[in-house]
Amino acid sequence: MPPITIYTKMYCPYCEAAISLLRKKNAAFEEVAVDGDAAKQRAMAARAGGATSVPQIFIGGAHIGGCDDLHALEHSGRLDPMLAG
User: Given CA atoms 69, 70, 73, 75 in this order, what sign does their dihedral have?
Assistant: First the structure.
């Protein structure tokens, strides 16, 4: 399984929904909380091509996008192959 990183903030329902889907898939991931940490927020935005909203999700180094993008991959049947590497 490729490495998965998800940038989150507390009390974010979209972050929780994305994490829930990853857990349902039994996918191990690194969660990086960016609450109140300007340096982490800048690093996330730089890595995500300027995106500042959360969550920002990366699978195997590829920027997936946010929660809606992750769920769209699931609905199209493309998430499982990505998670498998």
Answer: negative
